[in-house]
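pipeline stage [seq->struct] | target=YCII-related domain-containing protein | organism=Pseudorhizobium pelagicum | residues=124
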Amino acid sequence: MLYAILCYADEETVFAWSKEEEAAVMGRLYAVQEPLAQAGKLGPTGRLMPTTAATTVRKGKEEPIVLDGPFAETKEALLGFYTVDVETLDEAVAFARQLSSVNPGSTAYEIRPFYVFHPGSVTG
């Protein structure tokens, strides 16, 4: 089953890290990711730029409205994601727990099953 593991964090904390702090956190995250990557279970991962770099397209009454930045006002923001192909939700939860334990900037990891859509087919 494919799962998206969404990382929520306090942007002020994460983007205030020094280069050394950033490198240390990324090293710990890499150590957690490596076993899944070696097993062929880790798909694309990514860190999103700050919400100040976001553009939101929101439904309007007649036409979609384009806004600078995120629409929601919240302390924690979606900061990155992992895709994993694991047998069970328990395996995805275990991975998210490991990520959480080594990432001092994260506030939550949300896990959602998902399907990949390709023109003419559905897999997942």
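stage status: PASS
auto-comment: Strands lie at 2-10, 42-47, 55-58, 65-68, 76-85, 106-113, 116-118, 121-123. The chain has one domain: 2-48+76-116.
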